[in-house]
């Protein structure tokens, strides 16, 4: 199969790289992905990844020096609270909410887009990660899931979404709808343990608000129309040539562009965190405890 980023590029009309080093970095042959890439001006010398690196350099430097990343990578100061498995579990829950929404949008954008994204979809893997780390946390602490719930900040007023409902309820409904959509499309198995309000309740109000802002932004992007000319799509492996109508193609275009950056950042940049996090949060327990009722395992929607 061709490089998934080249497939993204073929849809958006951009060339992710002109040289083999990019594909070698991601474990894909440049020859295998050539058929999925669109031809661009031969005078173009900079690769898309190089342009992205240059444009986001300042933001990356700021993020790398942030307290959150320092805690995640275990290189914080002595006075900084430890980033433990419960914090990592919350981080995974937040990521899953975002990916479920994003992938629910892009798989409905037509068969060509769906085909290009199949090799990088992450919602199912993230759901399995959440369950594995929840199992580990409950096994090692001999706790009930209710013991993991944080006390709400008494000084923080409950926030509400634009629809007037509280943010946690909005998030729970949004994630539930996204997961149902992924199941109906065959992306998630029917028996997948889903995120529900029990998981959302593990997040702090600030974390919920941050995810809600992100999801609302994705929803806005999915409704953005960039014109009536439509977008021409290059066929990928297993798909027939097609041209999306402007009502579908132009609306999904900004979400697809966001997905390209999102997946590239997690699958490429995230490799720097892989070894450290795998060691720091190793999974020792591969099966749930016998007392299933005590921990309400698994949590399903």
From TrEMBL:
What domain of life is recorded for the organism? Eukaryota
| Matching InterPro entries | Haem_Oase, Haem_Oase-like, Haem_Oase-like_multi-hlx
User: What UniProt keywords apply to this chain's record, in alphabetical order?
Assistant: Heme, Iron, Metal-binding
GO biological process: one example: heme oxidation
Gene Ontology molecular function terms on file: heme oxygenase (decyclizing) activity; metal ion binding
What's one Pfam family the UniProt record gives for this protein?
Answer: Heme_oxygenase
Keyword rRNA-binding assigned to the entry: answer is no
Q: What is this protein called?
A: Uncharacterized protein
Which species does the entry assign this protein to?
Meira miltonrushii
């Amino acid at each position: 199969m061709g490089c998934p980023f080249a497939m993204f590029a073929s849809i958006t009309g951009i060339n992710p790289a002109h040289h083999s080093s990019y594909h070698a970095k991601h474990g894909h042959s440049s020859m295998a992905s050539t058929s999925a890439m669109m031809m661009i001006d031969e005078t173009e010398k900079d690769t898309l990844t190089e342009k992205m690196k240059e444009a986001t350099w300042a933001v990356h430097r700021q993020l790398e020096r942030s307290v959150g990343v320092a805690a995640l990578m275990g290189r914080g100061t002595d006075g900084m609270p430890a980033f433990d498995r419960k914090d990592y579990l919350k981080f995974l829950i937040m990521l899953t909410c975002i990916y479920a929404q994003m992938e629910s949008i892009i798989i409905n954008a037509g068969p060509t887009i769906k085909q290009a994204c199949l090799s990088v979809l992450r919602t199912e893997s993230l759901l399995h990660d959440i369950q594995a780390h929840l199992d580990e946390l409950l096994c090692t602490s001999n706790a009930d899931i209710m013991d993991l719930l944080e006390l709400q900040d008494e000084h923080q007023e409950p926030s509400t979404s634009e629809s007037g409902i509280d943010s946690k309820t909005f998030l729970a409904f949004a994630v539930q709808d996204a997961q149902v959509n992924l199941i109906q499309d065959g992306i998630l198995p029917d028996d997948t343990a889903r995120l529900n309000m029990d998981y959302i309740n593990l997040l702090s109000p600030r974390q919920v608000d941050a995810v809600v802002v992100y999801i609302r932004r994705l929803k806005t992007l999915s409704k953005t129309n960039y014109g009536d000319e439509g977008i021409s799509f290059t066929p990928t492996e297993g798909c027939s040539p097609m041209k999306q109508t402007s009502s579908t193609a132009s609306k999904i275009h900004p979400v697809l562009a966001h997905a390209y950056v999102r997946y590239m950042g997690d699958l490429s940049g995230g490799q720097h965190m892989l070894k450290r996090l795998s060691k720091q949060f190793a999974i020792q327990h591969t099966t749930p405890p016998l007392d299933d009722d005590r921990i309400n395992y698994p949590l399903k929607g």
